[in-house]
Amino acid sequence: MQPKENFWGRLCPKLPRVYVRTMTAILLCAALALPAMATNAAGNDMWTVAQNIIVDVYNHIAGISTALAGLMSAIAVIGVKLSGNQHKSDQAWDWLKRIWVAWAVINGIGAFIAYITPQFSGFNTLTP
């Protein structure tokens, strides 16, 4: 039967190697880190570029949602007109209501952000 080694007896021979690997990883991460406030060729910082990207993407989403809401509303109204019974007609009206609510929510988010953003314009800076 072999004697059982304690925890430190097993760990201590490996400890310098683990320490060197850990410190190497930390130093590599620090050396390869990019500056956070980088600017692009136009001189905009990353927050301005991110804001422009978000506005552009949201405008595309709002445009697509408006076109789809119009198309799906037309399909729902045609479904109401062509339905053979009251149950199908009620289902089509329910879908029409869901389409309008979803469109209002998607466009309402943009309106809310456009209204709220100027209210917080001075709060993103630190003053000593």
Q: What is the N-to-C order of secondary-structure elements (H for helix, E for strand)?
A: HHHH
Assembly type: single chain
Shape: elongated
Work out the helicity level.
Answer: over 70%
Counting DSSP E segments of at least 2 residues, the number of strands comes to 0
- Please, what is the average pLDDT? 81
**Approximate strand percentage:** under 5%
What is the tally of helical segments?
A: 4
Radius of gyration: 30 Å
Task: Quote the distance from N terminus to C terminus.
Answer: 69 Å
| Main sheet makeup | none
Low-confidence stretches: none
Structural class: mainly alpha
What can you see in these coordinates?
This protein is mainly α and 128 residues long. It has four helices and no strands. Helix 3 (46-82) packs antiparallel against helix 4. The N and C termini lie far apart (69 Å).
Walk me through the topology:
Blueprint (H helix, E strand, L loop, with lengths): L6 H5 L3 H18 L13 H37 L3 H31 L12
Helix pairs in contact: 3-4
Summarize the model shown:
The protein has four helices and no strands.
Primary descriptors:
128 residues; 71% helix
